[in-house]
Each structure stands twice: as structure tokens, then as C-alpha cells.
UniProtKB/TrEMBL annotation:
SMART domains: S_TKc. Residues 1-24 form the signal peptide. Residues 571-849 form the Protein kinase domain. It is a single-pass type I membrane protein. The lineage of its organism: Eukaryota, Viridiplantae, Streptophyta, Embryophyta, Tracheophyta. This is Protein kinase domain-containing protein. GO terms for cellular component: plasma membrane. Its main location: membrane. The chain crosses the membrane at residues 493-517. It comes from Zingiber officinale (Ginger). Pfam families: GUB_WAK_bind (PF13947), PK_Tyr_Ser-Thr (PF07714).
Length: 903
């Protein structure tokens, strides 16, 4: 063979390849180029990230591989953030945790994290449907070491965004090894609580200076104070301990979530097919927004993921590949029974038996009879190949987010719907390896159970005359009954024809009409049955959540979704009253003109949906004038909506912490609000049959009505405790600044945890300061940490708010301060009960009333009620009346105090 013979085809090949690549870059913008570095050391580089022009999608995703160490370091952004790995499934970059340490002789140290304008963040949410956001990362601030405070500061304003403090009561936490293990000396909180999308902030670590006269103590054992940010989902406690003990820093990671920011939403991005980032076939797009956003319209970009059952890189053409756990034909030896429940494909118990992990079930053989479980605790009672999974107990999960093939069914709560895949039959048929309708006698059916376009999917049925499992080869068998049916139908037709011949075509028409009518009647009947189920199941649900209701006259109503949409003007953003960690609260106007507050959960962390249900269960047990009343719920949405009485006047926090000017809350109002709230919490702790710990006591959870009466709210985190139990072990829950240090250390929840948090509220009432605040010079401060030293050093009055100094007596302030002190005791056992706190506050108020010559006869409920109901205007009035007295008094007081407490 001659050389030129070879050359020609080669040239043609080269030319065609070249024309292909130039066509590709011009018209399709397919990155990355083929000569891009694929790795840096052991780290596999994933597009849209890349090293150098032509390799990254946009310059924000430019990486640097620094060969100054072995192995080389992969750096991000401004060359300061070190990348450990990429997670394409979730859209995360694992990075080295930002941390700061405090040397033995140092009192302050800080480190800053500057993400500039990079499309990266520590706390982003991802929207799957109009109702739910999933958090992408789970970063925590963590402090290990004794008597230290870590503040997260917004670098631009120097404001505090988060605080975490530790105190050790015992002095024997000496070795670094013990610091993590010991039962004191660490604290932490979820970065999710940091309501900021600021990309530049700092961790500032300071030592608490209580032990100035014991400096020798400090220098011996505190060298290992460390504050860091790490992700609890991607790291183990073991990794954390190793990191803190400085043994192996490579196991622990923090995570940054990234997003594509050329367009703010998927919808807009999709319109430009040349720049749309979700390139792979079987990739999906989700809107991304900052965790502190209040409105659905505040998305900042989008994120691509491979569809369920696919893995790989959705940003590359054909980057998503069918996963290893996918099976289109189940193995021969698959278990088909669990107890007496039949397991049919696509469901299965192990890999190779189910179609994909979405259809995995488990069989708990240890129970009698064995139970078939879906997820962790849903007991399956039946698998229906018509697209339903039925349960023994009602389900509340919101399956509308696209991480499974399930959508909660609208009509009842004990089954959920499933589709085999989120594709139309037309698209599905094109790919023979994944098309699910295996049997020759099966047909594909497009379904849309929820009405959301994105939930469009398909299922398979056996065709007419066949029954069985269309998802298996030879799964559809001839239906013997169908033959009989056909024969009888043939007979009818034959008869019709015969009759037609003699009587005429009119009768045949009548016959057909009858058949149609019969079908219609049948479907109407089915609808009726469905409606009956609906009612029955709601009844079931209610029975479950309202197991013992003593207050039969205060029934929990079930509202329809339609009614709720009307009440909130389709959940209009202008109706948003507030947004808490767990959901959005809307103002609604019912058809009878009643104004209500409607709470809608937002976050789809499994546990938080359960919290929602928890709240219904708890509130249905409670009736107290200082606890916000639950009027009803709406069960037609994926996440139940809760409907409360509308409390019109904002929160105690709003009224105490005024941005500009002085708080309008008088000392009398404050004392009353404190007494009422203490009473409500005491009631919860000792409520008739069951004890309830609130777990999230804070001033923003105390609502005020138009007469400034306190209403304790937000029971999402609360827990029932059987009366014969004094504590339970739970996952740490609470708000930083209010969290009981003992609970944090031991995870043991007791009623005294609420007492601690209530102590913090009393402190806010006394000082007018937030649990975390800044001094005038901008220095970050922790209120509870400053309080104890202040009382000891006779500096208390520096902390107390001016208005309180003017209106309260010295005796009252000291009494409250002593009460706070014991409430904030590090040991729960040393704290008073909520009942004792309530009594003490009542005593203080009674003494005050006596002084003002307003007698409250002992136990006179009516007078007490009148006092508590004193409206804002009348209490203002009372303030004015008392102003004269108190002014004289204040003067005396000032003189007296200046003697005792030189300032
Ligand atoms: C991208 O990073 C490389 C180092 O890896 C640097 O040389 C280059 O200037 C960067 N490109 C841009 C546009 O910033
Ligand atoms: C970070 O970027 C800024 C300007 O963009 C530059 O002045 C600074 O030197 C950079 N820092 C590092 C560590 O590269
Ligand atoms: C501040 O923190 C850094 C990083 O951990 C550490 O290297 C440095 O020694 C610390 N400085 C002081 C004064 O503690
Ligand atoms: C930490 O502070 C507490 C209370 O302020 C004090 O009793 C304790 O001795 C301190 N612990 C250490 C290890 O300095
Ligand atoms: C703590 O004490 C040290 C040394 O006595 C002092 O330099 C530092 O400013 C003090 N810090 C605070 C927050 O008071
Ligand atoms: C701390 O160390 C100093 C000298 O290193 C020693 O004299 C002192 O007793 C130590 N203090 C404690 C409490 O161990
Ligand atoms: C550190 O831990 C990581 C993961 O935990 C492990 O892969 C690595 O080998 C460890 N390195 C050393 C030096 O022990
Ligand atoms: C989002 O909606 C709210 C209320 O409808 C509006 O005030 C706000 O300006 C909107 N934000 C953006 C970014 O469009």
C-alpha cells in the first residue's frame, strides 16, 4: 500500500475533525477544550471549573494548581481557598475548613473569608417546587476550648451575624485531647442561622477575661482554643476531633455551594440554548437563592443536576451517565414477599431487584409479622402497579421535590403516587435501555398526578385483555375474565345486530348509549369513593394528632387549599408577615372577614416537616390565654399549612430592640409581658397529662397583641415529655444566644433549658439589648457573657436600659437581676422551675402595684385579668400618671445609686 493512499483518508479525517471542532465552539460553545488539565494532584477537576481560558465556563470558575507543595494544592478564587474535592451530584466544592486558633498568650485572633463576587456561598437554598427549598450545604461554626467567644462578623459593617461562646465550670479540662470529649468547652451553631448572603465575613475569636487574677491557669491549658467552619454532612465527628487535635487536618471539610449566575432563573436561562449550562441529556435545572431571601423572586442563579438514577457531570454534553444501581430487568432470585405483602418490580429490597434506588424498600424481618418499610418509618401496606404506594399510617412527606419518583397524593394521606420516570412516553421510548414498559403487551401512559409541569412522567399498563406486571418481560398475562367479558360483549353485539335487523338501528344506538352511561356512572361512583376516602383519611389523621382533646369546643378546623389561596391572595408576597427558620408566615383574611396568620413550611429537611406536624399535635393539646391559638390546618398541600389567630402587634423582640429611638415598652408592660410568658411556659411544662418543652424560647417568639398581651408562639421544635421522665436525649435545637449550655453539652433536654432561654429574655427586657450586640465603638458583645461579670463588679447599671432605670426601682432591678442570675446558672439543677420564675415575677409585680396603690387582693383573678388586659394606651396613660411620682423617685434613686455604684 502506498503512503499517499493512507494520507488521503487521514487528511479528510483531519479536515472533518477540524471543521467539527470549529463548528462546535462557534455554534455550541462546548467547553472545556480537549487539552485542559483534568487533575491537580489527586483531585479531579470538574467543569464548569477549570484551569485557564477555554477550560472554565466563566472566569469565576478559574482554578489554580499550585505546585509549591506535594501534593499540589488546588486553589479557588483569590488563591486563598483550597479545594479538596467536587461533588457534582449536589453542586458543592469541598474546601479546607476556615479556622482560627488562639495561642496561649493571645486574647484575640481572627480570620476573614472573602469570596468576593464569586457565585459561591456557605449557605444557599435550592428550589425544587414552588413550595420547598432544600438546603445545599450544612456548615457549622464550631468552637472548642474553654471560656471563649467566636463572633462571625460582617466585614463591611462590623456587625455580628453569629455568636458562639463556651464556658467551662470545671477547671480540669487540661489536655487538648479532652477538650472535645469533655462535657464542657465547646459550642456550635448551624451556618443556616446566619442570615446573610454576604460573601465576605470574618471569624473573630476572643478569650473571656474572667480569670484575670488567675492568669497562670489560662496559660497552662487554653492554648488549644479553636474556631472553625465545617460541614456536618460531609465530615464525621472523628474527623472533627482529629482536626481540633491537630493530628490530621485532611478529613474535615467545609462546603461551598456554587451556582451559574448568567441568568437568575432556570426559566430565563433555558431560553438561550447556546449558553444554558445544563448541557447533558437527562440533566435538570433548579433555581438557587440565598438563605436570607424573603421572596420567591430573589433567586440569584441556577444549578444543574443529573436526573435521578444518573450520575456524572450535568454541565457537559452527555455528562450524565446511567448509574450503577439502575436495573431494567430484576435478577431471578429477588425476594417477592415481606410478611404477606407482595413486592413487585420496579420495587425491590436490594440492588439488582429494584429499578433504581428510588424504589428501594426494606423488610424488617425482626418484627412480627415482618414489616415492609419505605424510608425510615413508613410501613407499606400495599404496592399498587397502578402508581400508588399505600401505608398503614398517614404520610406527610412532601415528595414534590425531585429527589424521588413520588408525589404525595392530593386526595388522601395514606398513599403516595409514583411515576416510573420523569419523561413523556415519547421521550422514554427513544432509549431502549431505560424504557420501562418491558412486556410486549404493555402500553405507556403519560401521567401528571400533581399538575406541576415538572412532575410530568409516565407509567406502564398491560394492554386490554392482559393483566400483570408491565415492568417485567412476559409480565402481562392474558386475562381469562377478559375473554369471558369479550364473549359476552360479542353476544350482546350479535343480539344487537340481530335485533337491529328486525327492529332497526335506533335500538342499537340506545344500547351503545346505555354502555356509555354505565361507564360514566361507574367513574362517578369511583369519584365518590375517593371523596369518602378523603374524608375518612382526614378523620384518621385528625384522630392521630388530636388524641386527647379536653377542649372539644375549640376544635381544630380543616381548611381547604382554595380557601387559603383566597385568604392570602395566592400567597402574595405582600402578605408575608415574617420568615422564620422554618417557614413563611402570611397574613390571611378568611371569607368571614377573620384575620389569621398562615404558616407555610419552606425547608425540606425531613425533620422539619415532622416538626410541622409536631406543632399541630402540640397546639391541639393546649388552651391558654398567653399561648397563640391554632385555629386549624390545611392538609391539601404537600406541607400542611397551619392557621393561627392573628396577633397584631409584632414580637417582643421588635418592641425591645428598636433601631432608632427608645423602646416604647414601659417597665410595667415589660414586667407584665414577662410574667405572662413565664406563666405560659410554666403551663406548658406542667400541662395536665403531658409535659411540653418549648425548646425555642426567645423574644422573637413572644408575640404581642393590640393590648400588648403576650402570646407565646412557634412550637415547631417543641417536644412532649412523658411526665415520669425528666429528660430526653435529642438533637440540639435552639437559637444561638438563647441555647442552654448544659443542653448543648449533654444533648439532654430538660425543662430547665427553657428556663435558661427565658433568663436571656429577662436580660433583654432589663437591658434592651439583643443577646448578641455591638458596643457604640462597634465591638461585638455577648449579652449573657457580659452580665455575670457586670453583676459581680457592680457594673450592672451600665447594662440596664435607661428607661428601665427611670421607671423601675432599685429593688426591682436587683430582684430581676438575681432571678436572671439563677436562670442562667450553668447547671440546670441550680435553675428555678418555670413556675417559681412565674411566682417571683408575680411577687415583684404585686409589690410594685401596692406601691402604686393599686391593690391586687391575693388570688383575685378578675383584677389580675383586668391588669393583664390593660391596653397599650391605658398603660401609656398610667405611665404618664406615674411619671410625676417616678421622677421624684428617680432623683432620690439617682442619688442613692451614685453612692453605691460610682460610675
Ligand atoms: C486564571 O488562573 C490562572 C492561574 O491558574 C491565571 O494565570 C490566570 O490569569 C487566571 N485567568 C483569569 C482570567 O483570571
Ligand atoms: C486578591 O485579589 C486582589 C485584587 O483582585 C489582589 O489585590 C490581592 O493581592 C489578591 N490576593 C491574593 C492573596 O492573591
Ligand atoms: C491566629 O490564628 C492563626 C491561624 O490559626 C495562627 O497561625 C496564629 O498563630 C494565631 N495567632 C495568635 C496570636 O493566636
Ligand atoms: C471559665 O469561666 C468560669 C465562669 O466565668 C470560671 O468559673 C472558670 O474557672 C473558667 N474556666 C477556665 C478553664 O478558665
Ligand atoms: C483580657 O485581658 C487582657 C490582658 O489582661 C487584655 O489585654 C484584654 O484586652 C482583655 N480582653 C477583654 C475583652 O477585656
Ligand atoms: C501552670 O504552669 C506554671 C508553670 O509552667 C505552673 O507554675 C503552674 O502551677 C501551672 N498551673 C496549673 C494550674 O497547673
Ligand atoms: C488523614 O485522614 C484522611 C481521611 O480521613 C486519610 O485519607 C489520610 O490518609 C490521613 N492522613 C494521615 C497522614 O494520616
Ligand atoms: C420581589 O417581590 C417583592 C414583593 O412582591 C418586591 O418588593 C421586590 O422588589 C421583588 N424583588 C425583586 C428582586 O424583584
Amino acid at each position: 500500500m502506498k503512503f499517499t493512499d493512507l494520507l488521503l483518508p487521514l487528511t479528510i479525517l483531519l479536515i472533518s475533525m477540524e471543521s467539527f471542532t470549529s463548528w462546535a465552539t462557534e455554534n455550541e460553545n462546548i467547553f472545556p477544550l480537549s487539552n485542559c488539565s483534568k487533575t491537580c494532584g489527586d483531585i479531579k477537576i470538574e467543569y464548569p471549573f477549570g484551569i485557564g481560558v477555554g477550560c472554565y465556563r466563566t472566569v469565576e470558575f478559574n482554578l489554580t494548581c499550585a505546585y509549591d507543595s506535594d501534593p499540589p494544592r488546588l486553589l479557588l478564587g483569590n488563591d486563598t481557598i483550597q479545594v479538596r474535592n467536587f461533588n457534582m451530584e449536589k453542586g458543592l466544592v469541598y474546601i479546607e475548613p476556615p479556622y482560627v486558633t488562639l495561642n496561649a498568650d493571645a486574647y484575640m485572633n481572627s480570620t476573614s473569608i472573602d469570596l468576593k463576587n464569586l457565585p459561591l456561598s456557605f449557605n444557599l437554598g435550592l428550589m425544587y417546587s414552588r413550595t420547598s427549598i432544600e438546603l445545599m450545604s450544612f456548615n457549622n461554626l464550631y468552637v472548642a476550648g474553654c471560656n471563649a467567644t467566636a463572633n462571625i462578623l460582617d466585614v463591611s459593617t462590623n456587625g455580628i451575624i453569629g455568636v458562639c461562646s463556651t464556658i467551662c465550670s470545671s477547671r480540669n479540662t487540661s489536655t487538648t485531647k479532652q477538650i472535645f470529649m469533655s462535657d464542657n468547652g465547646y459550642c456550635g451553631f448551624d451556618m443556616f442561622d446566619v442570615k446573610t448572603n454576604k460573601n465576605s465575613w470574618a471569624i473573630q475569636l476572643t478569650r473571656l477575661n474572667e480569670t484575670e487574677n488567675e492568669n497562670s491557669m489560662i496559660s497552662n491549658n487554653t492554648s488549644s482554643i479553636i474556631a472553625l467552619i465545617y460541614d456536618e454532612e460531609s465530615s464525621s465527628h472523628d474527623d472533627l476531633q482529629k482536626f481540633i487535635n491537630n493530628r490530621n487536618k485532611t478529613g474535615l471539610t467545609a462546603t461551598l455551594a456554587w451556582y451559574i449566575n448568567d441568568y437568575p432563573t432556570c426559566k430565563e436561562a433555558r431560553k438561550r440554548s447556546d449558553t444554558y449550562a445544563c448541557r447533558s441529556h437527562r440533566s435538570e435545572c433548579s433555581d438557587v437563592f440565598p438563605e436570607d431571601s424573603l421572596y420567591w423572586n430573589e433567586t440569584i442563579g441556577y444549578n444543574c443536576r443529573c436526573s435521578l438514577d444518573y450520575d456524572g457531570n450535568p454541565y457537559l454534553p452527555d455528562g450524565c451517565k446511567l448509574g450503577k444501581n439502575f436495573t431494567s430487568t430484576p435478577a431471578k432470585d429477588c425476594q417477592t414477599k415481606c410478611g404477606n405483602i407482595t413486592i413487585s418490580f420496579p420495587f425491590g429490597l436490594k440492588k439488582g431487584c429494584y429499578r433504581g434506588e428510588g424504589f428501594a424498600l426494606t423488610c424488617n424481618e425482626t418484627s412480627h409479622p415482618p414489616t415492609l418499610l419505605f424510608g425510615d418509618y413508613y410501613v407499606v401496606s400495599k404496592i399498587s402497579l397502578q402508581g400508588k404506594l399505600e401505608f398503614n399510617i398517614p404520610s406527610y412527606f412532601d415528595f414534590s421535590f425531585r429527589q424521588s419518583y413520588f408525589t404525595s397524593s392530593k386526595e388522601n394521606m395514606i398513599s403516595i403516587n409514583w411515576v416510573i420516570d420523569y419523561q413523556s412516553c415519547n421521550d422514554a421510548e427513544k432509549d431502549a435501555t431505560t424504557f420501562a414498559c418491558m412486556d410486549a403487551h404493555s402500553i405507556c401512559v403519560n401521567v401528571n398526578d400533581t399538575g406541576n409541569i415538572q412532575d410530568m412522567g409516565y407509567r406502564c399498563n398491560c394492554s386490554d385483555g392482559y393483566i400483570g406486571n408491565p415492568y417485567l418481560q412476559d409480565g402481562c398475562k392474558e386475562d381469562p375474565q377478559y375473554e369471558a367479558y369479550l364473549v359476552s360483549r360479542k353476544k350482546t353485539l350479535l343480539l344487537g345486530v340481530l335485533l337491529g335487523a328486525s327492529i332497526g338501528i335506533g335500538f342499537l344506538l340506545l344500547c351503545i348509549t346505555w354502555v356509555i352511561l354505565r361507564r360514566k356512572w361507574k367513574s362517578r361512583n369511583q369519584k365518590k369513593i375517593r371523596q369518602r376516602n378523603f374524608h375518612e383519611n382526614h378523620g384518621l389523621l385528625l384522630q392521630q394528632i388530636i388524641f386527647t382533646t379536653d377542649y372539644a369546643d375549640e376544635k381544630i378546623n380543616i381548611f381547604s387549599l382554595e380557601e387559603m389561596e383566597k385568604a392570602t391572595n395566592n400567597f402574595d408576597e405582600t402578605r408575608v408577615l415574617g420568615k422564620g427558620g422554618h417557614g413563611t408566615v402570611y397574613k390571611g383574611i378568611l371569607s368571614d372577614q377573620r384575620i389569621v396568620a398562615i404558616k407555610k413550611s419552606k425547608i425540606v429537611r425531613k425533620s422539619e416537616i415532622d416538626q410541622f406536624i409536631n406543632e399541630v399535635a402540640i397546639l391541639s393539646q393546649i388552651s391558654h390565654r398567653n399561648i397563640v391559638k391554632l385555629l386549624g390546618c390545611c392538609l391539601e398541600t404537600d406541607v400542611p399549612l397551619l392557621i393561627y389567630e392573628f396577633v397584631s402587634n409584632g414580637t417582643l423582640s421588635d418592641h425591645l430592640h428598636i433601631l432608632q429611638g427608645e423602646s416604647k415598652l414601659s417597665w410595667d408592660d415589660r414586667l407584665r409581658i414577662a410574667t405572662e410568658s413565664a406563666g405560659a411556659l410554666a403551663y406548658l411544662h406542667s400541662a395536665a397529662s403531658i409535659s411540653i418543652f418549648h425548646r425555642d424560647v426567645k423574644s422573637s417568639n413572644i408575640l404581642l397583641d393590640d393590648t400588648f398581651r403576650a402570646k407565646v408562639s412557634d412550637f415547631g421544635a417543641s417536644r412532649f415529655i412523658p411526665l415520669n421522665q425528666t429528660h430526653i436525649v435529642t438533637a440540639i435545637h435552639g437559637t444561638f444566644g438563647y441555647l442552654d449550655p448544659e443542653y448543648y453539652q449533654t444533648s439532654q433536654l430538660t425543662e430547665k433549658s427553657d428556663v435558661y432561654s427565658f433568663g436571656v429574655i429577662l436580660l433583654e427586657i432589663l437591658t434592651g439589648k439583643k443577646p448578641a450586640y455591638s458596643t457604640k465603638s462597634g465591638l461585638p458583645q455577648n449579652l449573657t457573657m457580659n452580665f455575670l461579670p457586670a453583676t459581680r463588679e457592680n457594673m450592672l447599671y451600665d447594662l440596664v436600659e435607661d428607661r428601665v432605670l427611670q421607671e423601675g426601682t432599685e429593688h426591682e432591678i436587683l430582684e430581676i437581676s438575681n432571678l436572671i442570675k439563677i436562670c442562667l446558672s450553668l447547671k440546670g439543677a441550680e435553675r428555678p422551675t418555670m413556675k417559681e420564675v412565674e411566682y417571683k415575677l408575680q411577687d415583684i409585680r404585686k409589690a410594685r402595684m401596692k406601691k402604686k396603690k393599686v391593690c391586687i387582693p391575693e388570688g383575685n383573678e378578675e383584677t389580675e385579668r383586668l391588669l393583664t388586659m390593660s391596653s397599650y394606651s391605658s398603660s401609656e396613660l398610667m405611665d404618664q400618671i406615674n411619671q410625676e411620682n417616678s421622677r421624684n423617685y428617680s432623683f432620690e434613686k439617682e442619688v442613692m445609686w451614685s453612692q453605691n455604684y460610682p460610675r
